């Protein structure tokens, strides 16, 4: 694990996204809250937040962080695609990119799990870091093209 003991505590923030594509009928079931396992967006949102909090238990050599906040949101892009975004923030010595990426990944996996009975052909991804700020490396923002 990287030694961050000498680093300054700074405000750090990261935003990540992932997508999940499915049959239009599956997305309609999700939107209408008619999936047998329950409200897909609420369960996946909670799963993403819980996953962000446990990132250091899932990713080897990842520092354990006392997160200040984690937000997970969903947008319907078209009749078959959901975009998931997570924002993680901390005042700490290391960044929160892995926490944001873990949140969107687990949220997408949760959508898959909750809907697999009706659509096993769902596709997850791409998953990516959109933005990060704080720390010595400064600000990063992916060009959205």
Describe this structure in words.
With 145 residues, the protein is an alpha+beta fold. The chain has 4 helices and 5 strands, in the order βαααββαββ. The protein has a 5-stranded antiparallel sheet with strand order 2-3-1-4-5, covered by helices on one side. A hairpin with a 2-residue loop joins β2 and β3. The relative contact order is 0.29. 31% of the residues lie in helices and 32% in strands. It has a single domain (10-134), classed as Molybdopterin cofactor biosynthesis C (MoaC) domain (Alpha-Beta Plaits), CATH 3.30.70.
Quick take:
This protein has 145 residues and is of the alpha+beta class. It has helices at residues 24-31, 40-53, 55-58, 97-115, and strands at residues 10-21, 69-78, 81-92, 123-133, 140-141. Helix 2 packs antiparallel against helix 4.
Question: Any key phrases for this structure?
Answer:
single chain; 145 residues; alpha+beta; Alpha-Beta Plaits; 5-stranded antiparallel β-sheet; 4 helices; 31% helix; elongated
